[in-house]
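Course assignment 3, question 2. Fill in each field.
Student: A.L.
Task: Predict the tertiary structure for the chain below.
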Amino acid sequence: MARLADYFVLVAFGPHPRGSGEGQGQILQRFPEKDWEDNPFPQGIELFCQPSGWQLCPERNPPTFFVAVLTDINSERHYCACLTFWEPVEPTQEELCARDAAERDEEANEGGPGALPPPTPSPPGQLFAPKTLVLVSRLDHVEVFRNSLGLIYTIHVEGLNVGLENVVGNLLTCVIPLAGGSQRTISLGAGDRQVIQTPLTDSLPISRCSVALLFRQLGITNVLSLFCAALTEHKVLFLSRSYQRLSDACRGLLALLFPLRYSFTYVPILPAQLLEVLSTPTPFIIGVNAAFQAEAQELLDVIVADLDGGTVTVPECVHIPPLPEPLQSQTHSILSMVLDPELELADLAFPPPTTSISSLKMQDKELRAVFLRLFAQLLQGYRWCLHMVRIHPEPVIRFHKAAFLGQRGLVEDDFLMKVLEGMAFAGFVSERGVPYRPTDLFDELVAHEVARMRADENHPQRVLRHVKELAEQLYKNENPYPAVAMHKVQRPGEASHLRRAPRPFPRLDEGMVQWIVDQATAKMQGAPPAVKAEKRTTVPSGPPMTAIVERSGGLHGNSARRLEVVRNCISYVFEGKMLEAKKLLPAVLRALKGRAARRCLAQELHLHVQQNRAVLDHQQFDFVVRMMNCCLQDCTSLDEHGIAAALLPLVTAFCRKLSPGVTQFAYSCVQEHVVWSTPQFWEAMFYGDVQTHIRALYLEPAEDRDSFSVCGGSLGRGMGGPGSRSPVALRQVGEAPVQEDERSALDVASEQRRLWPTLSREKQQELVQKEESTVFSQAIHYANRMSYLLLPLDSSKSRLLRERAGLGELESASNSLVTNSMAGSVAESYDTESGFEDAETCDVAGAVVRFINRFVDKVCTESGVTSDHLKGLHVMVPDIVQMHIETLEAVHRESKRLPPIQKPKLLRPRLLPGEECVLDGLRVYLLPDGREEGAGGPGGGPALLPAEGAVFLTTYRVIFTGMPTDPLVGEQVVVRSFPVAALTKEKRVSVQTPVDQLLQDGLQLRSCTFQLLKMAFDEEVGSDSAELFRKQLHKLRYPPDIRGTFALSLGSAHTPGRPPRANKDKGPSFRTLSRNLVKNAKKTIGRQYVTRKKYNPPSWEHRGQPPPEDQEDEISVSEELEPSTLTPSSALKPSDRMTMSSLVERACCRDYQRLGLGTLSSSLSRAKSEPFRISPVNRMYAICRSYPGLLIVPQSVQDNALQRVSRCYRQNRFPVVCWRSGRSKAVLLRSGGLHGKGVVGLFKAQNAPSPGQSQADSSSLEQEKYLQAVVSSMPRYADASGRNTLSGFSSAHMGSHVPSPRARVTTLSNPMAASASRRTAPRGKWGSVRASGRSGGLSTDVGSRLAGVGPPQANGAPPEPGFLRPQRAALYIIGDKAQLKGVRPDPLQQWELVPIEVFEARQVKASFKKLLKACVPGCPATEPSPASFLRSLEDSEWLIQIHKLLQVSVLVVELLDSGSSVLVSLEDGWDITTQVVSLVQLLSDPFYRTLEGFRLLVEKEWLSFGHRFSHRGAHTLAGQSSGFTPVFLQFLDCVHQIHLQFPMEFEFSPFYLKFLGYHHVSRRFRTFLLDSDYERIELGLLYEEKGDRRAPQACRSVWEYVERLSKRTPVFYNYMYAPEDAEVLRPYSNVSNLKVWDFYTEETLAEGPPYDWELAQGPPEPPEEERPDGGAPQSRRRVVWPCYDSRPRAQPDAISRLLEEMQRLETELGRPPERWKDAWDRVKAAQRLEGRPDGRGTPSSLLVSSVPHHRRSLGVYLQEGPVGSTLSLSLDSDQSSGSTASSSRQAARRSTSTLYSQFQTAESENRSYEGTLYKKGAFMKPWKARWFVLDKTKHQLRYYDHRADTECKGVIDLAEVEAVAPGTPAMGAPKTVDEKAFFDVKTTRRVYNFCAQDVPSAQQWVDQIQSCLSDA
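Answer field:
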């Protein structure tokens, strides 16, 4: 029972003390005058009566009523019902108001209260003051308060004959029950009657219509977000003009939150004076009058709900987490069904006539029912996560948040996380967690309706039915009796407030009211208390919880198969079947990603623990620890799946004996997990264990034994709560429950609470003590456990603790947690005492002690442990930690002595001759990097990666060798390597090791040879070793000087630190020669520049960077060159003459002579008839550093003019001829881009020359002359008038010209143009051909002119010569669009500018980076699809650049083919210019498509013309910042694209291009080092190649290597090579025609990149095994893995196969094998002859014309030969041709074998005697058959591998021979030979053992050698 009203108060207007215009409330009277004992009078009622402030009114307002809510210090709510009415201001009040005259005057002016006239009947200026009747109650009966206050007001206004004192007294003494559903009729003694309806239970909130109104005002979405905001503790502010609406809205929001109670600030109506409360930092729900909206706008973190406008404003900085997903949408849809039932029917064709809409009150309950269901779904199963920590004297209950989230599958959910951490939920747990209490609707719902709610999820109508049922119950709770007796309460008449009130509200008689109250109190005391006993029961727990969304099985579906694997593996481990276990381990580690498997592991391991201990041997221990680590690594710090909790008792149970008395437990090996340093985890574990023990305390012993011994009591609290039916926790939901009689801890607690009142005092005391000591003993136990898992095995490693997030952060948060001051001081004193230990351990121990102390404080205070016990604990903790540290020291010491686990043996890589190991193998794991090859995948084969092995660093490469970690893959060796020089990026990564799944430091190395090593270092590799590896790698990658590179430091005298050896050569050596050359060059440079400024060649450090711009402009040359530099060679000094001859030997010169571009006779006399000459002007590299020494220039230009011309061009690279077309005699020139002043000055309007004409002008005149000379030296244009231009050439002509299938790129405009008519208007990227700034003098339609380049005839001839040729310009200058802006045309139109847009080197660099990332991603893709690769390939724009290059090149080819010369003048002339010029020559001249020609092309255009290989490849430290720019690689890619389209035109194979692509960055050879010939001479590299033969084993030049290799194997040769004479190639260049080069994507894990041939061959297989019986070889089939083996080697093409077979057979027959090339040429020649007599062959002309452009790609033709139906293999397109034309052409074409015969040495003439001898190798080497040649002329005995070999393998100088004697058979000699066939040759150095094939030939050899010796 409770009082209906506690206080009745009368509050009136009073003047403000500070005299301002506003008044303030004054309490006139309050009843009762003294406070009730149980309920003091609330303060501040005056403010809440008039929330907007007390003000006087000019007119009488109608009375208002609202209920304000005040919250007292005990968070009790007081409802203040306020009825306000207005009364005229009394004169007395007026006097009170006007304190002093001045103020009155002031207010009179404003018309304020001071200016009132004396009261007259309702005078016009009359003011009214508010007066409020307030009823203060703790009950919320709004209507009753409204009626009661209304009655009092009515009595006053209507002047009823009733004593107000009586009414007030009756009101204050009225007592009603709180709940129970009874009706109570009351009367206040004024002839009134009211019925008060009490709710059935007081735990359910009463909402009347407030929730429905809230939804009406704000709408569904807004209310939902307010609901979430209130639950997640945000600030919510309501605005409205109506106070009653504010309190209704707040009440509605609170009703929605049920069963949680809002425990923060709750003020439905906030007075204006208290607005600053809004800036409080704590959450709140507050209502404010809309008049103060402006103040609300300034708040940054408050969610504002405007009830009148229906909006909710959420500030930007506030994030309201939404409900977890299916619930959010489900709730939304069901709310709309409740609020708008017609929505469902809106689309029906025949809607039902009418639908009954619920009344507002009913709708209100339905809405609440929706939210009640929502909470039941959210909190379903919460009771299973309650921990009963204490039962007596009061229940102490804790909630296991992590387990709850884990099992609901909502770990990631922001909303639930915040709700569970909030205050409301804490209150919910302490209130509803109690196991024995009255229950209500929510308890029923969450326990019994869960299954129904799950079943209804997808049936909206069933959900609606459920909601309506719940709504009924809620409605019944508020209105239990439908028939409510009629109220009878008097009300004032209509507009009564306007009538003049008879008098002000009277003052009541306090005495009388008090007397009534006292009488009632006395009567109450006499009556027996009518306490209705509450019905308390055990709260049902409901079904165990399930995940909120049934997650689909996903990747780690808990299939029974996986669990089976885990169980099997564990049983193998414990049965000692280690091999079996090892096979299963990878699968187990994969399975352990799934939750069920982890749980299964814990269960299985539990079965192997007896008496809390399990001793294992080392291998078992290792397996168990690995599996535990794998389990724990996926646990978050909260351990929401209880895995760490289940493993905790196991890590202290499994152990191994290290030595007598020293045992190592598993916990010392599983400490690296974040969960151990999380206080919340330990608290949950602790409370779970305490609960288990407390439950055991109250269970009967028998029952106890059954349930408890199963798992030592410590398993299963993973789930906590009732789940602690020991192992039930780890049970899969849905397994059969364990015995029924088992009662959960909550059941036990409920029973105990029920019995508690019946127990005697002593018994109660005893139980309390037992419980307390249980908690205390658990605290000690946990202090031990925590020290086990927090103290590292090696206590010097304090990093463990620092790295673990938990401990460090807690250190800082310590003060907030420590509740007991004693604790702090004890810990401190301990620390200071133990100061004698070394600081490190002290640090670890101190941190652990503090962590444990904080934990102990928190749990013991919460569990009610006495302070004495707590002090005792604090003293014990340091001792526990100290003891444990001492134990660990012994364990650590012993564990170091353990024999290390057998790790796989490190496989040593094979090294090249001269390659040395810099860092020996570091154990690493090679991880998959996103390419499918290594990972198995679609490429086929099992996953080779991850592999474990070691990484080696040598002077040349980074090499990984190892084996797959998955033992099921097999014993394959995995090799991945790349040259150190190719490294483009290294970054540190943190990765998981594939076996132990530990997080380890790793390194990702990416190389420009498209290899990637992603490695995780093994734990045995220290961080310092890893760091050393990085440093050494960096040092080798970027040597400070080019001399540090592998190619130069290998076997050379230049190795830094070694003094150069003296040269033995007699004449001036090449080294001295090159030194002289450079010296002279420097001299001449010095001499020339003496007039202006001394120019020093850049020093080595600065070589990588281009000279600064200003310097270039300053350096210019004196007008007159000194005559001495231009003398003919007779005047050259001897060293200079050597220079000349060596220059002549260079590739350029050989090529110029082949092209007939000028010869260099001994006297340098020029053949005047030739248009061009070879000029030695640059032989000292004085004019242009980056050009070769000899250049081709027009005959008419003097050498001294060249100096001036060169100044107009960047880097002084003036135009020089590099190729001449044999047919059209057009020439191809190359140069650097123009300097601003060059051509621009040349083509600008010619101003009258100023008197002091500058040098710049003169040089541009020279330039014009130079170009004129080029034009006139072309035979066709020499005598032409120069007027014949393209200007008259109309596009109409073009229209008639239909392009043929052979037509290639006809314009640079629109590459997609299909018809010629479209070609006339260039568009797109290449539209730049429209030279934008030209004047009208030139044909406007440049596009059509270039289109004239266009479609050649089908046979490749230029289109209709007479039609096109005369209109061509003589010279086209292809330049960069940006440079040629504003350039005017040449007046005579002999040359024309073609501006194009080119990409820069930096774009190539950026594009290559993206290409690299596309081909070698670095990490496995989430869903690998071909589309993602193609997308990233497209993003890289690499193919677009190749398309542009091919397009420009084809354009130039067309121009040259039609007889115009072309000057390519782009950028600095050494990147894109080189690419274009080389491609043009390759397309135009078949010679360059041979092996020798391609070598010449690269040597000439790339090496001699100064492509900056070192700079672009970032070879040295100086170039590190510029990065890798693969200009040469891009060129090779273009060649590869052409090769694909014309496979029969190239003598070399695609492998050759890959080989060059690999080795131009590998720095294995010297060929591609440095930036120009000048630099190579300066370093002495250029001529040494021929001079020094001292180190034959190391090829210095890549060409030499290719040449040697070509003799041994046809790997560089293309068998389809069958060129057409003078074929100009015009490849398709559209991106759709381009293919990704397989160089970028392929890899061979068996041996690493196949480009170092010596390494790639693999060890030879022993022949004995192949043929045990000497018969035919057995068929040895083997599996070829596409991703592992090298396919070309495992499955060679048919021809290579046959050649190999021939060689093998020859060796078997004992004949020296024939060279493959000779055999091949012979076969081809025979093939041709065979086809001739029979005339059936197709004439080649026919064949060619009938096959379209792609005839090349058809490759080998099979055609019926002359004999029957046998197929003869034809490899030439013009095979068996009967036409004389083609046969004569055939005869005219040189056989490719003659190319090889050029390399025959001159030694072949001096062969006095030759034959085969067996020679015994050096010590321990076998006998080998060699071809020996006795050379009397040179007095030496040479030997070769076989007869046809031209490469001499060794020489015995006969001058050193001392004797020739008969020998004896040594070990391993040929068995069949007679003993007398052996003879020895003894030299001063060693004895050679020989064996001839028979005795006579032995005799012959001895005689021949003897005669040679005697001749000497």
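Instructor remarks: Residues 867-897 form the longest helix (31 residues). Residues 329 and 901 are 56 Å apart (CA to CA).
Grade: pending
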